[in-house]
Design a protein that fits this description.
By secondary structure, the protein is mostly beta strands. Helices cover 2% and strands 35% of the residues.
Length: 617
């Protein structure tokens, strides 16, 4: 993301002083040394084995975002299913969006997690396939990114050279300016091992947002491991925040000794401090240059209050994204509150987009419905791009020249019970002129019918689709696996369910008795142990069923399915499978099914060993 890809011109000089470059300048590595900056010791470190690792290069700080804002369609939300062929970005419809980023030339990159692809929107508003063939897996390193294979690409980042960094659950991939893809973090297995060694050989868990500092270090939020790790310019990885405990605690201490609860996004502010959006902790945390962590937004309790007061005393409800402009103002994608909120330099917080019921082009942002914002970035010309998870679209929030939004008589209010009628948009709002072009669709389509508001707001939960540091699912329904074969007939799914079903979480854990035991995601399961899988979903139709298929290699071992009477608008199901004493050792896979359609797969390993009998402490 642009807001995430800039270094904000900050690094720690050899004398330990913070250097902040001008907002229009470019960041260089002058005066920065390995090990310095956030998470570094400030001392020159001994050399390591030379590898072909080219560190990222940061960018200038984006301009100030003037208020108020108006909203325009950008990508997604159209009527045509996006197939990867060139089309107008505002005309296509995405199945989901994992993240968004902007390159130095204004090109916008959009990750499709379920599509296993990264697309790009050109300056003329045309979208085209950029990376990935659309098959889930891993492959293609050293070759053309368009022919490579990706696994659920999520958050994105672009550096000054135009290199695109792609976050996968257990890897980070890099696509250089020539279109060649490589892996720079992770060996493909979930874990938290490898600190002090080369990042490409390390293990990670639930990679999410990324950021680059002025010294060329890449920071990665590991959501499932509840940590933030750093890849220094030599390609060596270390942990800079989080001790692995899934709680939000430790302010005033060194960040590496503190606790984080699902860090999902990162940015670096104008002073060179690292900002962390903490989804499970309902906070925005900040790591200072000296490595001390503090809270800048949120009291930790889920809620929506606090506008007009100090951000530290306000409530957030599942913050998914964080971004900073040149003034140091912090923008937060407040997911479950369906708002974009802004923290000023004086520490006060306000809502700048969302919270209303309007759906139209050019509408005032504060009166507009924002559907579960999962990502936000500040463009170089001082505008916002927001990913709406509930509508699978990207919208552009542009400032107004005269500070007024006019001619809104054509806007339709969104009824919680259904979509509005056809809108006759008659907006005369004029967006501000831009210094650096960000592609805007050549024509503004009629706004799409919005996704109906769920009966209850989804609770932000761990969404790693890999074995992670799992927590017990509260209020879940446990279903035991059976050895019966599963057929399409046994899992009837209505067309509406196939169209709207959204998986919010899939967490694998070791099951003991009636509880799941959080565990290091790198260890193997043993025959005789219970494998627990918690799946959280939204928008499933009545009478639908989810299914789990347990595979040892390519051999089907058992199936699990839900009771159709248990289907709700949103909820959590707990599946479990008792590994038999003669369970095959080696790679296993749990596949989540919607009818006969595989939604996602989670890999784990079974090896010989004593059955663990410990209980949650």
């Amino acid at each position: 993301m642009l807001g995430k890809s800039i270094a904000q011109g900050a690094c720690v000089s050899r004398r330990g002083l913070v250097r902040v470059f001008a907002a229009t300048g470019c960041v260089t590595l002058s005066g920065c040394f390995p090990g310095q900056g956030i998470g570094g010791s400030g001392q020159l470190e001994s050399p390591v084995l030379s590898v072909l690792y080219e560190p990222p290069v940061g960018q200038a700080v984006p301009l100030r975002v003037p208020l108020p804002l108006s909203v325009f369609s950008f990508a997604g939300g159209g009527s045509s299913e996006w197939s990867g062929e060139m089309a107008q970005a505002s005309d296509v419809r995405f199945s989901d969006i994992g993240g968004v980023a902007v390159g130095p030339d204004g090109t916008v990159y959009i990750a499709g997690a379920m599509a296993n692809r990264v697309d790009r929107v050109r300056l003329d508003g045309v979208i085209e396939r950029f990376a990935g063939v659309g098959i889930r897996g891993h492959g293609g390193d050293g070759g053309d990114a368009r022919e490579a294979i990706f696994t659920n690409p999520g958050r994105l980042l672009v550096d000054q050279k135009g290199a695109v960094f792609v976050s996968e659950p257990e890897r980070v991939r890099k696509i250089d300016s020539g279109g060649i893809v490589s892996t720079i973090l992770g060996d493909g297995q979930p874990g938290v091992h490898g600190d002090g060694g080369l990042a490409v050989s390390a293990r990670t868990a639930g990679n999410a947002g990324m950021a680059i500092d002025g010294g060329g270090s890449l920071f990665v939020a590991e959501r499932a491991a509840h940590r933030v790790r750093k890849i220094d310019p030599r390609g060596v990885i270390t942990t800079v925040a989080g001790n692995g405990r899934a709680i939000s605690a430790g302010d005033g201490r060194q960040a590496v000794d503190a606790s984080l609860n699902q860090p999902v996004d990162l940015d670096i502010d104008t002073e060179g401090n690292l900002l962390i959006a903490e989804l499970g902790g309902n906070r925005i945390r900040r790591i200072l240059i000296d490595g001390v962590i503090e809270t800048v937004v949120g009291v930790g309790a889920a809620g929506s209050g606090g506008d007009g007061g100090l951000a530290r005393n306000a409530e957030l409800n599942g913050p998914q994204g964080v971004a900073v402009d040149s003034t140091g103002a912090i923008f937060v994608a407040d997911w479950n509150n369906r708002r974009i909120r802004r923290v000023s330099l004086d520490g006060s917080i306000e809502t700048v987009a969302g919270g209303g019921g309007l759906e139209c082009e050019g509408g005032p942002a504060r009166q507009t419905r924002v559907d579960l914002p999962v990502d936000v970035l500040v463009t170089m010309d001082g505008r916002l791009l927001v990913v709406e998870d509930g509508a699978s679209r990207v919208r552009l929030f542009a400032p107004l020249l005269d500070g007024e939004a006019r001619g809104q008589s054509g806007c339709d209010a969104i009824s919680p019970s259904g979509a509005p009628g056809a809108a006759t948009v008659a907006s005369t709002a004029t967006p501000a002129s831009t210094a650096t072009p960000v592609p805007t669709p050549t024509s503004a389509p009629t706004p799409p019918a919005p996704t109906p508001t769920p009966a209850s707001t989804p609770t932000p939960v761990e969404t790693s689709t890999s074995p992670g540091v799992a927590e017990e699912a509260k209020g879940s329904t446990a279903t035991q696996a059976t050895g019966e074969a599963m057929s399409d007939a046994s899992l009837p799914v209505t067309p509406s369910a196939k169209k709207s079903l959204r998986v919010l979480s899939a967490i694998l854990a070791l099951g003991m008795d009636e509880k799941s035991v959080p565990f290091d995601p790198t260890f193997d399961f043993h025959p005789g142990e219970k494998v627990n899988l918690s799946v959280t979903y939204s928008n499933i139709a009545d009478g639908s069923r989810l299914g789990i298929r347990w595979l040892a290699g390519d051999s089907l071992q058992a199936t699990t399915e839900t009771d159709p009477q248990l289907a709700r608008e949103e909820g959590t199901y707990g599946f479990w499978f008792l590994l038999p004493e003669d369970a095959p050792v080696g790679p296993w896979r749990a596949e989540l099914l919607d009818g006969s359609r595989v939604l996602l797969g989670i890999d784990f390993t079974v090896s010989r060993g004593e059955v663990r009998s410990f209980r949650p402490g």
